[in-house]
Write a structure and sequence with these properties.
This protein is an alpha/beta fold. It has 17 helices and 21 strands. The chain has 3 domains: 43 residues, no CATH class; 198 residues, 3-Layer(aba) Sandwich (Rossmann fold), CATH 3.40.50; 167 residues, Dimethylsulfoxide Reductase, domain 2, CATH 3.40.228.10. α8 crosses α9. The N terminus is likely disordered.
Length: 441
C-alpha cells in the first residue's frame, strides 16, 4: 500500500521596520515603514512614489556578478579577481580620477578619499553638476541657513526659486514646508507660498504668487528685490520680464513675513550667473534679516550629495574637486574639477562610485574614457557600468547596508539595513576597503 504524500506548508517570514530613512533624494524622510516578507520588500508606507519605487523595484536591472571587459565582450569573474584587477590598474595609474559619491554612505566616501590620497589622484563629487555654485557662493559670503525642522515650525513664507519640489522632492511640501503643521504654524492656512521660475510648473500652480522670470535673468531679479528691500527705487518698468509692480509685491511679502525660507534649485545654480546668482540670493537674505528673519536652503538632489561635500571638507578642508597629485590636497575649481580633468584628457583611470556620469556628463567630455580604463561600483547595470572595463556590484546603501547620510540641511541621519543583499554581493565600504588593503600591502 502506497504511503500518501504529506504537503507541508512553508512558514512565511514577515517583519516590519519603522523609522526608515529614505535613500532617494535630499529630503531623507525618516518616517518610512517598510514591510519585508520572505526576504523581499513588499510594502513601503509614508514614502513618495519616487522613494517607494527605489525600495520596491531595486532588483530590476540588477548587476549581480563582477565583470571584466566592455560592452557585450564582458565576462563574469569572482569578486577577488575583480578586486585584484582593479588594484593592478590603480597601481599602474599615475593620475586616477575618482568620481560620484552622491548615493553612498559617508563611510564609503572616506575610503574614496583615502584611495585618492594614497595614489596621488583627484577626487570629485556630483555636486559639480548641481550645487557646486552654491558651495562656491557659500565660501565667499557664508550661508544664512536653518534646519528643515525650524522651517516647519516657524516659517510663514516659503519661496521656491528655480526648483519644482512637487515633482523632484514630492514630500518636501507636506513634511517640511508648505503643508507641514509646525509648533507655531498651523499648516498651509498660516503660510504664503511664492514660486519663481522660468515656466509654470506643478509647484507654481499651487502657489499664492507665481513670478515668471526670463531664462538667465535671475541675478537681475534678485538684485532688484534687494534694492526694494533696502527702500531704493527701481527706475525701470520691468526686470527680467517681471513687471516692477509684481517685484514690489514679492518684496513686501518678504519684508512682512515673520520667518521666511528661500529654497533654491538648479534653475538658479545651473543657469547664467551660477554662483553669482546664489551670491545675489545670499545678499538678498542678508538684507531681509535687518527687517525680519529669513533663511535660504539649497534643494539638494541625491540623498547623500550633501554628505559628500561634508566628508570632503572634514578630510581635506575642501568640499569638492580635490587634487592630491602634489602630495597634499589642492582645491582649484575649474582646474581640479572632474569635468575639466576629463576635458583636458589628464587622468589615466576613471573610478566611478554610486554615479552614472555617462548619462549626465557632456559627450565630448566623456570621449577621453574610450582611451583609459574605467572602473565602476554600482548596484545596477547603468550605461557607465556597460562602458566600464571592470564593474563590481555593491549593496544598496540604506536598504541592504547601513551607513550615515546628510540631509539637504546638513543634518546627519543614520541609514538602516532592511534586507540582506543577494548572495555574494558586498557593500561598497567592504569593496573599497579590500582595494585599499591590496594597495597598501
Amino acid at each position: 500500500m502506497a504511503i500518501p504524500s504529506i504537503l507541508v506548508e512553508e512558514k512565511t517570514t514577515e517583519y516590519t521596520v519603522e523609522d526608515v530613512v529614505c535613500p532617494f533624494c535630499g529630503c531623507c524622510c525618516d518616517d518610512l515603514i517598510v514591510t519585508v516578507r520572505d526576504s523581499r520588500i513588499v510594502d513601503v508606507r509614508n514614502a513618495c512614489a519616487l522613494g517607494a519605487s527605489k525600495f520596491l523595484h531595486m532588483n530590476e536591472g540588477r548587476l549581480l556578478k563582477p565583470k571584466i571587459g566592455r560592452f557585450d565582450t564582458a565576462k563574469e569573474v569572482s569578486v577577488d579577481e575583480a578586486i585584484e584587477t582593479v588594484a593592478n590598474l590603480l597601481k599602474d595609474s599615475s593620475y586616477p580620477l575618482f568620481y560620484g559619491w552622491a548615493c553612498t554612505s559617508c563611510e564609503s566616501i572616506l575610503l574614496g578619499l583615502d584611495l585618492a590620497d594614497l595614489l596621488g589622484g583627484a577626487i570629485d563629487n556630483t555636486s559639480i553638476i548641481c550645487h557646486g555654485p552654491t558651495v562656491l557662493a557659500g565660501q565667499e559670503l557664508g550661508l544664512i541657513a536653518a534646519t528643515l525642522g525650524q522651517v516647519k515650525n516657524r516659517a510663514d513664507l516659503i519661496v521656491y526659486w528655480g526648483c519644482n519640489p512637487l515633482e523632484a522632492h514630492p514630500r518636501h511640501l507636506a513634511r517640511y514646508s508648505v503643508s507641514a503643521r509646525g509648533r507655531f504654524i498651523d499648516g498651509r492656512r498660516d503660510r504664503k507660498v511664492v514660486v519663481v521660475d522660468v515656466r509654470r510648473t506643478a509647484t507654481a500652480r499651487m502657489a499664492d504668487l507665481f513670478v515668471e522670470v526670463k531664462p538667465g535673468y535671475d541675478y537681475e531679479l534678485l538684485s532688484a528685490l534687494k534694492m526694494l528691500v533696502k527702500d531704493l527705487d527701481l527706475e525701470v518698468d520691468e526686470v527680467g520680464g517681471v513687471p516692477v509692480s509684481e517685484i514690489e509685491k514679492l518684496a513686501d511679502m518678504m519684508v512682512e513675513a515673520r520667518f521666511g525660507a528661500l529654497f533654491f534649485g538648479t534653475g538658479l545654480t545651473m543657469s547664467r550667473g551660477r554662483d553669482k546668482n546664489v551670491e545675489a540670493a545670499i545678499e538678498l537674505v542678508r538684507c531681509l534679516n535687518f527687517k525680519t528673519k529669513f533663511v535660504l536652503i539649497p534643494m539638494r538632489g541625491h540623498f547623500n550629495v550633501t554628505g559628500a561635500n561634508e566628508v570632503f571638507t572634514w578630510r581635506t578642508g575642501y568640499p569638492l574637486s580635490v587634487d592630491f597629485s602634489q602630495g597634499y590636497p589642492r582645491y582649484l575649481p575649474g582646474e581640479t574639477t572632474a569635468v575639466d580633468i576629463l576635458r583636458r584628457g589628464e587622468c589615466d583611470l576613471f573610478f566611478v562610485v554610486a554615479s552614472d556620469p555617462i548619462s549626465h556628463l557632456p559627450r565630448r567630455i566623456l570621449e577621453h574614457l574610450g582611451n583609459i580604463p574605467v572602473v565602476a561600483l554600482d548596484p545596477k547595470i547603468t550605461p557607465t557600468v556597460y562602458l566600464s572595463d571592470v564593474a563590481i556590484p555593491v549593496a544598496y546603501t540604506g536598504i541592504e547596508v547601513e551607513g550615515t547620510a546628510y540631509r539637504m540641511d546638513t543634518v546627519p541621519l543614520r541609514l538602516k539595513k532592511i534586507v540582506e543583499p543577494p548572495q555574494g554581493i558586498l557593500s561598497d565600504v567592504e569593496i573599497l576597503g579590500m582595494i585599499l588593503e591590496k594597495l597598501r600591502g
